């Protein structure tokens, strides 16, 4: 009897691995990347639409307009900063969408002249209108001095 030797086709096994990656792994990675990019924007538009009061336990507050291009630039950074500091309220930055009718009174009450405006919760006179991460960090940590 002739023995048959089964040959492993390396080309065939690499094709099946590629197929598994494309079918199973790539969609998961795409979903995670899309979520990472889109979740802050969903939050920007659909949360922070009725804020009863400024949380003085928070480090600072961000007044923003969801349709402002400068706000759209900085909001995801603040969103992820808050996610990373979820268990530490004193490190979080409260976000208030002043575009929403429920929050428009903050514009007049606190004389918000532009967005994005960062304000220390302990001193409403310590403010910054900026998208510069270093300036924002300085305001939050030292009050801008």
Write the layout of secondary structure elements.
Elements: H1 10-46, E1 60-64, H2 69-84, E2 93-97, H3 105-109, E3 117-120, E4 127-129, H4 133-142
Parallel strand pairs: 1-2
Antiparallel strand pairs: 1-3, 3-4
Helix pairs in contact: 1-2
Describe this structure in words.
The protein has 145 residues and is α+β, with helices and mostly antiparallel strands. It has 4 helices and 4 strands; from the N terminus they run αβαβαββα. The protein has helices at residues 10-46, 69-84, 105-109, 133-142, and strands spanning 60-64, 93-97, 117-120, 127-129. The chain has a 4-stranded mixed sheet with strand order 2-1-3-4, with helices on one face. Helix 1 packs across helix 2. The longest helix has 37 residues, at 10-46. The mean pLDDT is 82.
Describe the structure in brief.
The protein is α+β, with helices and mostly antiparallel strands.
Characterize the biggest β-sheet. Answer: 4 strands, mixed
How many individual β-strands? 4
Residue fraction in strands: 5-15%
Low-confidence region ranges: none
Outline type: elongated
Number of helices: 4
Helix vs. strand class = alpha+beta
What gyration radius follows from the Cα positions, in whole Å? 24 Å
The level of helicity is 40-55%
Mean pLDDT: 82
Amino- and carboxy-terminal Cα gap: 90 Å
Which sequence of strands runs across the widest sheet?
Answer: 2-1-3-4
Question: What sequence of helices (H) and strands (E) makes up the elements?
Answer: HEHEHEEH
């Amino acid at each position: 009897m002739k023995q048959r030797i089964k040959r492993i086709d390396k080309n065939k096994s690499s094709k099946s691995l590629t197929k598994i990656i494309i079918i199973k792994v790539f969609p998961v990675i795409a979903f995670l990347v899309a979520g990472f990019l889109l979740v802050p924007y969903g939050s920007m538009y659909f949360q922070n639409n009725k804020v009863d009061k400024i949380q003085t336990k928070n480090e600072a507050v961000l007044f923003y307009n969801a349709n402002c291009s400068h706000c759209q630039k900085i909001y995801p950074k603040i969103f992820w900063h808050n996610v990373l500091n979820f268990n530490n309220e004193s490190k979080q930055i409260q976000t208030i969408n002043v575009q929403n009718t429920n929050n428009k009174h903050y514009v007049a009450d606190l004389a918000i002249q532009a967005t994005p405006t960062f304000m220390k919760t302990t001193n409403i006179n310590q403010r910054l209108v900026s998208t510069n991460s270093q300036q924002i960090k300085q305001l939050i940590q030292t009050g801008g001095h």
